[in-house]
Write a structure and sequence with these properties.
mainly alpha, 108 residues
């Protein structure tokens, strides 16, 4: 199984990596390592999990945008917390060493 929607650019955007060749190469190498695992069941499960995390991040990003434009919304902080949690899950699942959350704080 190969990644369907997970690209180096998309993961880089969510994890706060710069759009340079070095960062994109590091992310692409992490994805290739997952796809190249000898245990295909484990690899397929890892790919499916990462794809699910990215789908959730897409949904959370849209919800944050909507809620920030809604007068009196109290959901933004909770949505951002979930967004940061899913960024961390993607970083851990891909084996990347650092990421930035929506507040710009670098995590390692």
């Amino acid at each position: 199984m190969a990644f369907a929607s997970a690209t180096a650019q998309k993961i880089g955007k969510y994890l706060g990596y710069p759009a340079d060749n070095s960062s994109q190469g590091a992310i692409a190498a992490a994805l290739a390592a997952i796809e190249g695992m000898t245990d295909t069941t484990y690899s397929d499960d890892a790919i499916a999990t990462i794809e699910d995390y990215l789908t959730t991040l897409d949904t959370l990003a849209a919800a944050i945008l909507t809620e920030t434009q809604t007068e009196g919304s109290t959901l933004v902080s909770e949505l951002r917390r979930e967004y940061r949690r899913h960024c961390a899950l993607v970083a851990v699942a891909t084996g990347l060493q650092s990421w930035s959350d929506t507040t710009g704080a670098t995590q390692t």
